[in-house]
Amino acid sequence: QLQLVESGGGMVQPGKSLRLSCVASGFTFTNYDMGWVRQAPGKGPEWVARINNDGGNPGYAESVKGRFFISRDHAKNTLVLEMLSLNPEDTALYYCTRDRWWAPEYWGQGTQVTVSS
pLDDT per residue over 20-56, tens digit each? Predict the structure, then answer.
């Protein structure tokens, strides 16, 4: 059965960095675009980043552009989100997603990121 297993979340101070990882299994990783979606408390899901199945054309929400960087390691079936210069506004539950037609189709369990001083 397909799975998206996330790790790397935690609590950090503003201005610090986190690296989220998502290990995919149960499907051919290279066949799918992948992405990240986040949901802050009391708010709806917000698209964060997306990357093509071959690792090309990374895209980002305006709120994270220049600070977050998405990548994938096909040898490890892993999707990565490097988050720099974190703000309190980045606090959210972050979901790894398998995408289809430019939209999330399957979500992981989520990993909590909390940015607080």
Answer: 999 999 999 999 999 999 999 999 999 999 999 999 9
111: left (phi over 0), alpha (psi -120 to 50) or beta: beta
Task: Please work out, in degrees rounded to the nearest 5, the angle formed at the alpha carbon of residue 105 by the alpha carbons of 27 and 42.
Answer: 130
Q: Which residues contact 67 (CB under 8 A, 6 or more apart)?
A: 83, 84, 85, 86
Sign of CA dihedral 104, 108, 109, 112: negative
Q: Coil, strand, or helix at residue 30?
A: helix
Listed in sequence order, the residues at least 6 apart from 56 whose beta carbon sits closer than 8 Å to its beta carbon are: none
How many angstroms separate the CA atoms of 48 and 90, rounded?
10
Tokens, residue 97: 């997603």
